[in-house]
Amino acid sequence: MAKIEPRVLSGFRDYLPRKMIPRQRMLASIERGFQRFGYAPLQTPALEYLEILLGKYGDEGSKLLYRFKDEGDRDVALRYDLTVPLARVVAQYPDLPRPFRRYQIAPVWRAERPARGRFREFVQCDGDIVGSPDPVADAEVIQLGCTLLDDLGVKSYKVRLNHRKVLAGMEAACGIGAEQAVKVLRTIDKLPKIGPEATKGLLATENCLGADQVEKLFAFLEIAGEPLEVLSRIESLFPEGGVGREGIDGLRQVVGLLGAVGFGGRVALDLSIARGLDYYTGTVYETFLEDLPTFGAVMSGGRYDGLVGTFAGEDIPAVGISLGIDRLLAGLTELKVIEESQGAVADVLVTIFDGAHAPQAARTAQAVRAGGVDCELYPALAKLSKQFKYAERRGARWVVIVGPDEAACGEVQVKNMESGSQERVPLERLGAWMAEHKGR
Amino acid sequence: MAKIEPRVLSGFRDYLPRKMIPRQRMLASIERGFQRFGYAPLQTPALEYLEILLGKYGDEGSKLLYRFKDEGDRDVALRYDLTVPLARVVAQYPDLPRPFRRYQIAPVWRAERPARGRFREFVQCDGDIVGSPDPVADAEVIQLGCTLLDDLGVKSYKVRLNHRKVLAGMEAACGIGAEQAVKVLRTIDKLPKIGPEATKGLLATENCLGADQVEKLFAFLEIAGEPLEVLSRIESLFPEGGVGREGIDGLRQVVGLLGAVGFGGRVALDLSIARGLDYYTGTVYETFLEDLPTFGAVMSGGRYDGLVGTFAGEDIPAVGISLGIDRLLAGLTELKVIEESQGAVADVLVTIFDGAHAPQAARTAQAVRAGGVDCELYPALAKLSKQFKYAERRGARWVVIVGPDEAACGEVQVKNMESGSQERVPLERLGAWMAEHKGR
């Protein structure tokens, strides 16, 4: 057979051990965080019927679906996010207790143009609450998300908050009709990326807004300050009893609850946050690393009270947050917050003296593990010098040798790789010895 | 929008919390097991270039690939196993230290006809050693696999061992030529499933073997007994210096090493084990639950010394084992070894008395978590009776109430759901109280 070039698809990546070890620790920390808040694990298939996913993410999103016909000629697609599958699950299994809190940590696929911090396959870590219309739920998922980032040691981030009803109120106040509303939101959503001048240009050309409308809109978008202050100022610009005021009330409660649990400093109001996805109906939020402002959001979400209804026939309110571990990892690596691991997972390497002593070596490795210490056995016959070189490269703390002398008296030689000191330990005491020394 | 029927594709499944909670625990146990043996985590993409996967799994395997053209008109496929991607990785990154031990826990996809214990998407847990031709490596991955099953509490299983070179020797001894060899192996591989009579029939018809050849073959296949005994009997039927004897030597070392670490009783020789995949070159093994003999293998693998070479241009020896968590879970559930969880992940539910007391309730939940106890906040405004019903259904051990009386004096009411007893605890002491009580 001719040699096949080993390569990965553009936008996809291999995580080799040096990167995967810290990534695995991050994922474990996130999983613990979800559990601490009482979220239950859920897993859904990577492939869904195309019709389940289609039309949920806006026109741009639909174009990015990995879709194909399966062997039974069914139209299928790889999941684009974890939210739509959750909505399907809630509708499909009406016996699930509600309110339903679940987390899911799983890859999603989007055929995007690859770029810095943007991948075609990436793992999302989602926590959602289904069945509660109350801002208590919105505040909790944001608190949860902040806790996950805090657990990971992320120091400098801000959750930028907005509300679809505030956006609707703002559009109404600027005389933007319902037929233009969604398209205008898409343009506004680009503001952090393309800047105010380009945004104004698009609003005038693509969205056909008049100069006075653009000006009014930007008067809203430029309101800045403490969240509760910003809310009061916007409120004064909205007519009483309108949809905008509903959004203000919701945000005020969310901000108040986050303040009560000590996360007030983590959030800011930002009227330019619209979220591209079609299914949001209430609060929306995106989280940015303050030291990498142009890197894109690492955690986002919102309330989607209509999505479950597209499958269930009745509306069931829901709200959630999604942490993108891969972009976060890329960002933290760029910021040097996370360092690559040396690739070692075991503290101890047991060498194999020669073929005749392989069984003793295997027993020795077992004894180390029985002491609660991770241990690898050198898995081949090789010169001891080669085995030691491997141990050094892997960053092993101890190397164990079982040669003919040691084997004859039921002992092993333990070498401390840092100090170079050696010690003979009876095999039967090795587990206890390792347990004693592992913390040092 | 018209309602879309919520459903999953045939052969795919949702894991709802009651099933996912025990499954998650199994996956965590397996991950710990890999790490204890010094295996490093690796992650590869779900999608690969089709040419990477094609031709590695035999004709039947190739037909089962989920393949399509992506948005850039590239031929791509969902990964079929984790072994071929590993081989690609080893070839693609020549700087990886060798011997290279890695584990990967990830879903794979095969467009098989769905059946009991057979799914189109399932998670494989693979451990492999690349770069060692020595039976020490073969023995270790089998020991590792047995340890993973032991850790999961699987009581009754047997690893059925064979060797591709023993199979080759057996075929040679029966006068089966090289051109028929692979097809005959495929037929033999069906023996455990379809029984001896049907197998003999296929050997005569599909493989065109003569009656004497079939008889000779079955004389081999029916050799049974202690592994080392079986090996001696087969050896006596092989000519000296032939390929069959090489296989016998390899198996003898593997069996000896497994005996040395206390796993001798877990393995049996079985000349009918061939493994369908094309890439195996040495030891092969399949593991069956002895209480569910017809359920199919739950863990299998073997040595594949030529596979990396198809990408690297030079042969690099490798051996591995793959545990199929989904089939194992289905089997253990059928055997009632694993029970569904009630779906609760948190011991404590904090209720919300009313909207005015929501901030106190959120702070209370924080205090419980600070005590190291998982806690959920009821995420909506509802009658207390409804919140208690939810707590019962979820199996919460404690329910915490913060009403106006309690809030006024900085206390909370903690109700023990089992005994029904209640206790007032100062909010500032709640974390400590929970930490004290959680073990009881």
Summary tags:
homodimer; 440 residues; alpha+beta; BirA Bifunctional Protein, domain 2; Rossmann fold; 2 domains; 8-stranded mixed beta sheet; 5-stranded mixed beta sheet; 17 helices; 42% helix
Oligomeric state, counting identical vs distinct chains: homodimer
Number of helices of chain A: 17
Q: Please give the order of strands in the largest beta sheet of chain A.
A: 1-5-6-11-10-9-7-8
- Pick out the low-confidence regions of chain A: none
Please give the alpha-carbon distance between the first and last residues of chain A.
52 Å
CATH class of the largest domain in chain A: Alpha Beta
Largest sheet of chain A: 8 strands, mixed
Summarize the structure.
The structure is a homodimer of 440-residue chains. Chain A has 440 residues and is an alpha+beta fold.
Explain this structure to me?
The structure is a homodimer of 440-residue chains. With 440 residues, chain A is an alpha+beta fold. Chain A folds into 2 domains: 17-334, Bira Bifunctional Protein, Domain 2 (BirA Bifunctional Protein, domain 2), CATH 3.30.930; 348-437, Anticodon-binding domain (Rossmann fold, 3-Layer(aba) Sandwich), CATH 3.40.50. Chain A is built from 17 helices and 16 strands. The first copy, chain A, has helices at 17-36, 50-53, 58-63, 83-92, 135-151, 164-173, 178-189, 191-205, 211-221, 227-237, 243-260, 309-312, 325-334, 358-370, 384-394, 404-408, 430-437, and strands at residues 40-41, 47-49, 67-69, 75-78, 100-109, 121-130, 157-163, 267-269, 283-289, 299-303, 318-324, 348-350, 375-377, 398-401, 411-416, 422-426. In chain A, strands 1-5-6-11-10-9-7-8 form an 8-stranded mixed sheet. In chain A, helix 5 (135-151) packs across helix 11 (243-260) and helix 6 (164-173) runs antiparallel to helix 11. The two termini of chain A are 52 Å apart. The mean pLDDT of chain A is 93.
